[in-house]
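seq/struct pair 1
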Amino acid sequence: MEFRKINEDITVSPQITRDDVAGIAAAGYRAIICNRPDGEGADQQSFEEIEAAAKQHGLEARYMPVVSGKVEDSSADEFGRALRTLPGPVFAYCRTGTRSATLWSLSQAKTMQPAEILMAARNAGYDMAGVVRRIVNGGKTPTDTGDARFDVVVVGGGAAGIAVSASLKARKPDLSIAVLDPSDVHYYQPGWTMVGGGIFEAGTTARTMGSLIPKGVHWIKSAVAAFEPQNNAVILDGCRVVKYDRLIVCPGLKLDWTRVKGLVDTLGKNGVTSNYRYDLAPYTWELVKGLKGGRALFTQPPMPIKCAGAPQKAMYLSGDHWFRTGILPRIDIQFMNAGGVLFGVKDYVPALEDYVKKYDATLNFFHNLVAVDGPARKATFAVNKPDTEPTTVEVDFDMLHVCPPQCAPDFIRVSPLADEAGWVDVDPATLRHKTYENIWSLGDVMNAPNAKTAAAARMQAPIVAENVAADIDGLSPHALYNGYGSCPLTVERGKIVLAEFGYGGTLLPSFPKWLIDGTKPTRAAWLLKEQILPPVYWKAMLRGHEWMARPEKVSAS
């Protein structure tokens, strides 16, 4: 007997015997559902035998047989009604448990998100890919797929999605390309650090999505629910189906605010803020200006996160304001980092440490934020230092800047495209999917071991466009990504440490050392960040103009 728990209400299992019922009752289950027709296998005990044992142990039993491979909509409806009327928790079984898991998945499709259903079934050991369209369609068999078809479908209209669409359209003007994204607004997220530091206005970082979709590219304003790579299909919310010859996946990542207990309830008030959200970055600056003394906490969660330097950028710009206004001696700055180093590329650490000293900030490594009590102004951290017993500490604060935990979007994590950690599984050089040769990925959602920054996406977009174009022409991918990423570390107003690096921490400077020495804070790097990069983003990157990003072609030998 196996207990394959889907959630607190339902567990499924392969075929059981009457002798298993005592264990099921002892485990706290109050009802059994049989989804296997009697006589399906020679070694199978009949439902009558199971029912008799169930009655002996005070359990209800219900016979709801389903022929293998023929789960009807009506059967799923009946299963859902049984879950509502039977005493719970319920134990359901068939030959392998798959029919029971399928019935549960379809029965919950009207009340749960598809990704939640797929994840719960997967965690119990069942792959529901075969019924994903029915799940997305509210548990019912679709009667009209309404297929649209494009040469290339791009999932995501962020920096990576718009840039790769523009670069590909420039190379292949006649391609039919569709961008799938439900958002009305596109954000220049690298600007939010500057908003939180009082340098940019929030409104300058936002534009309408419609104004940025490249000319000749179709915009389908809908969210993706699931993928069917075996059918070259993307399933949208509402069960609409979009077919493709080639697929590019770049929806960004998910900011998982709910993983920190109490955080959602206190964001934007009680001194709790984050530059990782458009509406909160102005509150950061409001708090920085208003704080006249006390403790300011700046957190960084476990990797990977987008722009790994952003949590400390907030600390530096805040410290710089307090330094310039003369109140720094009255403020206790604490950097709470779940990791064990200040920055992952050691060449840049000495310059950053100088600013840590300047702002008299305390570095607390292996401290991961797990809970926030906003009204009480208390933050709880799990402390997991090497060779020491794990513990938790509670820290009072007057201002708390949070970098939230991050992961791949739910619909990616439960898809066939994902690796075990939930990220899109690509070759780190060509950015082509390791299993599906007509799928590519770029930006924050894929699993290449590079920094997740807008600068990385700017470099990746032409590489993916070049390789997709080559594939269309019957050639092998010949543009290779070296892991380039850039993190302009705003250490003070007017100076930046411009970190540029690739795979393995290799330094990849874009400028001669006499102009910008990336290992030192420079005014030139600040001007690049403040005045040059925003127009490069809006007017070059998102329009397919590959300024300092044109891929080198590597011929096969």
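seq/struct pair 2
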Amino acid sequence: MENEDDDPIIQELDVYLAKSLAEKLYLFQYPIRPSMMTYDGVPHLAARIKPKQQKVEVDMAINTMSPNYCRSKGEQIAFNVDGTGTDETSTFSSKLMDKQTFSSIQAASNTSRYVVAFYRKGEIHVTPLHGILQLRPSFSYLDKADTKCREREAANDAGDSSQDEVEDDVKQVTVRFSRPESDQAKQRRAQSYEFLQKKQAEESWVHLHYCGIKDSRSEHERQYLLCQNQTATENQELIKSPSEYLEMLMPPSVEEESEKPVAPSNVLSMAQLRTLPLADQIKILMKNVKVIPFANLMGLMAAGTESIAVLRCIQQVAMLVQGNWVVKSDVLYPKESSSPHSGVPAEVLCRGRDFVMWKFTQDRWVVRKDVATVTKLCQEDVKDFLDHMAIPRINKGWEFILPFDEDFMKKHPDVVQRQSMLWKGIQSKLEKVFSLSKEDLTCKKMDMSSASSTVMTGDQVLNIARAKAKENQARLEKDLHRKKEQTKLASSTTVVADVHIKEEPVSDDESMDTSAYESFNNGMANGVHEDENSDQSMNGEKDPVAKELLDFVESTFRRQYVLTMSELKRLFNLHLASLPPGHILFSGISDKMLQETVINSGCKQIMVPFPPQSTATPEEQKVFALWTCGDTYDKERQTLLELFSKGHRLRRNMIQARMSQEFGESLSKQQLDKVLKDCCVCYGGMWYLKGTVQS
């Protein structure tokens, strides 16, 4: 057995549990004193204890005859503390600092694992510790000296003022009653320093008698460290398995058993994060980083994660700004939250932060003062918005924190266009909320596809524009040539129509057109759709894009009945944003094509005479209405719409009189309310067609 065991048993010892001093045994530590410099030989003048608080104080003498002791300093300290008089309350009765007080603090709140072991004649006797205390010098006498000094100054001031005082002034006293204390206030008060000090002062001191280490009384007390009763009845053999005995010695910690949080608030564990679903991973990451390029986000994902899945998830919690992803405002500010600075609700914070994000889609720079003026939020809230996505620059404002990501814009044009549609919907909402002027909307546009031009040099923009112009010219020539060939094949006669193409050279001025690098709009692919429609009409086929657009227009007007052109474009942009990437409507729809589809769907343009001082643009003054819906209210709606050809607003009594003249008593109040609700809105006691109310 000895050859097989690397760690043989040398000796077996019996262990006894002594309980005589279990509730009275303390371990004293002196952390500022070297272990070889003990206080055993220093006279202990007094000792006292507060058992409930485990607070101990010990007075030890100072050797005033030592050559290292400065007598003048000792006298000065004693005079400052006690003054010239000597009584029972004096700290230094000899008028010399001849002692120092050591005060204790608890080194460990839980001492259930600690014992004192006493070895004797092959036996080990252990006694549990009641407390572990660290003793450090106390300087409470300095507080007493300060109190004495303030009392002397107060007495001198009172003596000087009493000579000039004739009689005391009568002062008004205001009596106030304190309101009932809440539970939270009680808890804060119980944790305050003043409350703890008051609680400590309530327990009285128990004075002790100190015995030296070599004193006979000390030797007698040390005998209690041995187990007094070692009979077989009370000291039975411990019958436990090794695992049970180990668990008794080292019980599991309560903190280790507590469940770990899903996502730490201050430290982000990537190993723990990757155990969550992909959508939760991206949401937690975006809440922490606020702004990130897509390439960096893919680098944080686990190996084998598809970019398509990441793109689908990132669009749910973030918006595209200058080619980078910025976390959405409603993710940072949930509905029930509020501002820690001003206390405004989360809805107001989300609108303000969306405005800052939208400003960065227009320009690289944002001025905090301008944002605060528009959003009416405090400077601290605005600064929090900007800290999430920008860096302050001296005398310039706040610059977007990341450079424009042109690579992402080129690789994912469908995502870029989808995000552009979403931003247009947000822009229209911000226009109404903050009453933005046209100057705010037209200054320094830098949408998704044009943002790169702001970080390019002039030569780069010129070269790109020239290349784009040449590309457009070549495409135009190719399309015209294809039309020639189709015309020749379709003609049944031998006469061939000669199509002359006038080619004009591209000048430098024309090549400066950078419209191809502006934001996505409804007219960027007009020529493509016109060509496709003409080709498909020749072959007798129906354009699927036109069919999809017609379905959208018909369903929209059956819900709204009356729409302005600008409102229809806004709804169309929101519809595009809800479509999956790669949908056929993403190929580009012009304003002209949209308007023609409205007319073809059975709608009519209502010529509403706006007042001359109206600020609405000609495009905004175009109002379309569904003329025939197929229900029982078509004639009533048509009569109502004809009334608005005389004025852009009408009173209800005028409408009711015209309806009664046309339909007699057959038109009830409920029917009139239904027709008005379908086509009009009421504002200031007047009725307007939907979308024509001028703010």
